[in-house]
Amino acid sequence: MSEQSHLNGAYYGPSIPPPAKKSRSYHRPGGGGGSCNPFSWCFSCICGCIFNLIFQILITILVILGIIVLVFWLIFRPNAPKFHVNDATLTQFTLSPDNNTLYYNLAVNMTFRNPNKRIGIYYDRIEANAEYRDKRFDTENLERFYLGHKDEKDVSAVFVGQQVLPFNNDDKSEYNSEGTEGVHDIDLRLKLRVRLKVWWAKPKFKPHFECDLKVPLTSGGPGSNRRFERTKCDFDW
Fold first, then answer.
1. Are 121 and 81 in contact (CB under 8 A)?
2. What is the distance between the alpha carbons of residues 193 and 123, in angstroms, rounded to a whole number?
3. 10 Å Cβ neighbour count for 177?
4. Separation between Cα atoms, residue 149 and residue 115, nearest integer Å
5. How far apart, in whole angstroms, are the C-alpha atoms of residue 72 and residue 6?
């Protein structure tokens, strides 16, 4: 009792931390904190359904188109048209050294062939361009015609005249080199406008043929004894 009176009721043990303050949370109506907005939820759900529906429609359309293309190919088995240059006769191919004027006389015999069994081909336009060193020196429009199933047709074209060409020194050097051999590299390019006859449908296309010809000059010189070799041309849609 005397010891407790001496301390006068004071506590001299370890320090006691102050009590923690209670934090107050304030929530505004509709401002997060796990709150749910029915309008926002419905809008996002509707948008998701619409996008999902559009995606499914696009996939369905692509699948249907793929099936149609596959059925079309299995029924018709389409093949690209064939084109050959059977013969080419070059009787004049003279380049004037003064003004780069090319004097030419070129006759070409060609064969168009349709290898398809169930597809017809309308050749509505045939523009034949004769070129040398990537420079066109003449153009001829050929006759229009129709090729039936597994059919072919022979067509002729004659390029004769003169044309000033923008030749540089490399072009002239190549011309002189070919003149020594008697064989000239001439390109024949055909720009086409065709229609395919497939049952009732007639789809239109604008393909072209490209032919790299090696034509001997027959009017004397080293190429007079050489013969032109039949050339198959490339087809591109």
1. yes
2. 6
3. 9
4. 7
5. 113
The Cβ of residue 27 has, within 10 Å, a number of other Cβ atoms equal to: 10
Residue 189 buriedness (CB in 10 A; 0-12 / 13-18 / 19+): middle
Report how far residue 124's alpha carbon sits from residue 194's, in angstroms, rounded to the nearest whole number. 5
CA angle 147, 153, 159 (to 5 degrees): 120
Q: Can you tell me the distance from the alpha carbon of 121 to that of 115, in angstroms, rounded to the nearest whole number?
A: 10
What whole-number distance in Å separates Cα of residue 224 and Cα of residue 185? 15
Residue 142: which of 133, 132, 153 has the closest Cα?
153
Instruction: Check if the beta carbon of residue 105 is closer than 8 Å to that of residue 174.
Output: no
For 84-102, write each residue's pLDDT tens digit: 999 999 999 999 988 999 9
pTM equals 0.71
One-letter amino acid identity for 166? P
- How does pLDDT run across 194-225, given as a tens digit for each residue? 999 988 888 999 999 999 999 999 987 777 78
- Interatomic CA distance for residues 158 and 138, integer angstroms: 10
Q: What is the mean pLDDT of the chain?
A: 85
The candidate with the shortest Cα–Cα distance to 81, out of 211, 196, 180, 214, is: 196
Tokens of 179: 């003149």
